[in-house]
Amino acid sequence: MIHLTERQSPLSPSLVNPPAKRLCCRPGYGSTCRQGQRAAGAPCGSSGATQGESSRTQSPETLLDIAARKVAEKWPFQRVEERFERIPEPVQRRIVYWSFPRSEREICMYSSFNTGGEEIGSSGESGDETRLPFRRGIALLESGCVDNVLQVGFHLSGTVREPATPSEPELVCNVSVSFDRCKITAVTCSCGNKDIFYCAHVVALSLYRVRKPEQVKLRLPISETLFQMNRDQLQKFVQYLITVHHTDVLPTAQKLADEILSQNSEINQVHGAPDPTAGASVDDENCWHLDEEQVQEQVKLFLSQGGYHGSGKQLNLLFSKVREMLKMRDSNGARMLTLITEQFMGDPRLALWRQQGTAMTDKYRQLWDELGALWMCIVLNPHCKPEQKAFWLRQLRRWNSVDVCPLEDGNHSSELTNLTNVLPQGPAGNPDSLSRPHRTVFTRAIEACDLHWQDPHLQNIITEDHYTNYCYHENLDSSLFDTRGWPLWHEHVPTACARVDALRSHGYPKEALRLAIAIVNTLRRQQQKQLELFRSHKKELLNRGITAVTNLEGWVGHPLDPIGTLFSTLMEMGRGSEEGILLDFSGACRSFTSSESFLSLAVETALIGLGQQRVMPDGLYAQEKVCRNEEQLLGKLQEIDLNDMLVKIFRKQAVLLLEAGPYSGLGEILYRESVPMHTFAKFLFTSLLPHDAELAYRIALRAMRLPVLESTNPSSDLSRPHHIVSVVPNRYPRWFTLSHIETQQCELASTMLTAAKGDARKLETVLESIQKNIHSSSHIFKLAQDAFKIATLMDSLPDLTLLKVSLELGLQVMRMTLSTLNWRRREMVRWLVTCATEVGVFALDSIMQNWFTLFTPTEATSVVASTVMSNSTIVRLHLDCHQQENLANSARTLALQCAMKDPQNCALSALTLCEKDHNAFETAYKIVLDAAATGMNYTQLFTIARYMEHRGYPARAYKLATLAMTHLNLSYNQDTHPAINDVLWACALSHSLGKNELAAVIPLVVKSVKCATVLSDILRRCTLTTPGGMVALHSRRNSGKLMSLDKTPLRQLLDATIGAYINTTHSRLTHISPRHYSEFIEFLSKARETFLMAHDGHIQFTQFIDNLKQIYKGKKKLMMLVRERFG
């Protein structure tokens, strides 16, 4: 076959419809055409298509097939044609045969989100794998729905029948697939599928060709077939083609004919003609078909849904697809990520959030983090070409320069320098870039473009299993190897781990594993050197008591997740390596029956990273990420069953962390703003407890510290977070996750309390640690409750030691919250009394003796003393009479003390508690009388007075009522005042006691009450003599005679009432409105009734009305109503 391949000239749209990749022509069309001769051979449909397939198991593969397969994988067919003048037809046939993909893995990758495990279609369907395009394609293939399969050159076509369903009729789809160098480069299906991935019909046809190649009719490219025809055959061919498809192709055929017959037409200026079946040209990019438009549309759709309808999960699955492509070393990985990034950068919410100054959602931030991490992997591809890296760098810099590009640490700028370039190789970088305040999600990828893989030591690490210093005697640099001869890799740890992630992502698992082991060995050596350094300066550092030594960039919660990368790399090999071996750098490979060695490396790496002392980062998102990554890593560790080897690792790391000083988060001295170790220590504690309890408690007790809440001023209130004073100048930390951190600290303490049950010494130690380190009253109260629950479990006897711990914690809570507002305070007081009751009578007596340091007077009387003296407490404690009396005396003493300190709120409670003891009751009454003159208001006095009457002390009630009246003041318009009932009750009590008592109280009433309606009500009640009208407690003293209104004390009350009506009338008329006229007339009617009670009342009322008419004559309508009613 002879072709002429040229760069296709621009043609009119009607002439470029055939999806040909290059132009093909026969000899004689021009001087540039290569001369050749067609080789004889079997017809295109011969059984040669199956050669090498059916006999593969019986005989070795032919040299032709081996060579053709290699050529088909690597060379574009145009290059084959240009390289050889004469290509025999069997060779062409085998090259065409082997050019179709032979692996189903890539087809699966392009037709479903995952190649294994849980798969979810891009349309959001989940849970039913049969709905995935790949699974559906297999089902269609296996049910015989693929027909008419024909391969013409590098083009495969066929029909796929979709069986009818109850809701859909049968569908027959015409499918065509173009391919080149074992990759599908274009797909077409009449089903109209709009998705990122191939439809089920494309999958079915492709798998048919993979699984049943011998059943596929194979033809050489159509240009070869046409070359075999003479002029008559070509004319017949064209006419038959037009006849069969005249409605579709006739206009195009006529236009082409006109163009060809025209000497100066554009089509005649180009040698050759398009052939869609002729294979790829040299200039064609060899990559799998990816529908870029659909990728963009799908990402835009997911972003527009704003996290709803599972869009976040769909985007994460797209990121997973990118990683899958990278692992297959598919160039579409970077291409797809570019498309995704462009849509992310175009998200309109970025500008909106920036304008409003609001933070993006946490899940959306995580998507950006993954985007940045993927670009880091792409630019660190160890085999990428310089021009590729330069292209990616330009893209990244363009995105990085956009104003709305998200920052790496959320909404806060970072003051960290460029740590990625702190390397033992490569350029130092631009000094200006080192001090850039803003680091976006792309900054690390941009910096990583300066990294390379040419370092000889690095190359030896990743390429050799047995690379040791014993193999390279000329290398005397001890920093490259540890004492055992294992290689080390000294590089900024997150950057080194990013290399590991890049190797894994690009399908180099063994190389990634070798580098990961070198990094872990480096971390081990660094840990040992830090321990030695601390030991040499231990005395000096301990005397100083504080340290400025810390890591400004922690490994857990880091944007590149270095510890997670190392852990995953080692665990993947640990769960099941193909060879079942551990790389041992002592010069040999040991075979293991299990994967414990890789597992132990992974576990030790996680422990080193989690125990690293690191400064708390700025910003809410960065701090939440630290917590989230720590919990994720601990979750993975908890899934591992501890064996003897792992227990040794735990013990070793626990000891190192305890002794490593300021380099460890669990060291003796701690940087004040370091990330706390509570969650990590809780995991270590529970893991070590069954194996080494003492070490477990040492770890947990050391981790209880929270130095950021410990003020540098010893006199400061440690329970108040706002007293934080940073020891670092010009740095004011904002611990957004402090509440979560304190909760974790509380959980660690609760775990220790639970484990220490029954061990008095350990309980005492844990109690001291809680009292020293926990500054939140609510968390200490929770611990007290937890300890109480554990100590009083139903299935065992109460643990008295743990109960005492619970009580001590409760007492601390009482002291902490005594002078501060706490909405749970009343609950706390009640719980403390319950706890003290469980501990015993001595505990109750103790809290009552020291009540002033624990309770307010109101709490002590209303809750503590009343609960102590209740029948339920006596029954619970099984007290005898003597014990009951002693406890009651303590309660009464407490009540009297509280009454003296706060008589307003405690006097009534004290009287109630002292009822059964005459002396105590009299003392309480005297306290009330002493406080009545100054410290108590009328409401409190009236309440106590009613209590006295109820208890049978009317004289004392009268005394207190008169004292209350002296504090009362009712104005003319307060006719609904709550004290009115108390005033009426006091007058009734005085009337019942006798004329003298009534005479004494009326002047007080006249002085205190200015409301006319209230005074008239009192006046009428005082004139009643029938028993039903007054409450007569002492009827013998009441003569039953009608008291004269002309004599005291009622005359004084009558005059005051009339005066009150007159004053009230003038006050109401000052601001009266017409809608209140009728109400005012009724008021005057009541006033007339009171006036008429006096012997000259009629005359007084007439004069009063005349005065109103004269003074308020301007209110004509109102005065008219007055005349109508009163004359």
UniProtKB/TrEMBL annotation:
<keyword id="KW-0862">Zinc</keyword>
<feature type="domain" description="SWIM-type">
    <location>
        <begin position="175"/>
        <end position="210"/>
    </location>
</feature>
<dbReference type="GO" id="GO:0008270">
    <property type="term" value="F:zinc ion binding"/>
</dbReference>
<dbReference type="Pfam" id="PF21055">
    <property type="entry name" value="ZSWIM4-8_C"/>
</dbReference>
<keyword id="KW-0863">Zinc-finger</keyword>
<feature type="region of interest" description="Disordered">
    <location>
        <begin position="36"/>
        <end position="60"/>
    </location>
</feature>
<dbReference type="InterPro" id="IPR007527">
    <property type="entry name" value="Znf_SWIM"/>
</dbReference>
<dbReference type="GO" id="GO:0031462">
    <property type="term" value="C:Cul2-RING ubiquitin ligase complex"/>
</dbReference>
<feature type="compositionally biased region" description="Polar residues">
    <location>
        <begin position="47"/>
        <end position="60"/>
    </location>
</feature>
<keyword id="KW-0479">Metal-binding</keyword>
<protein>
    <recommendedName>
        <fullName>SWIM-type domain-containing protein</fullName>
    </recommendedName>
</protein>
<dbReference type="InterPro" id="IPR048370">
    <property type="entry name" value="ZSWIM4-8_C"/>
</dbReference>
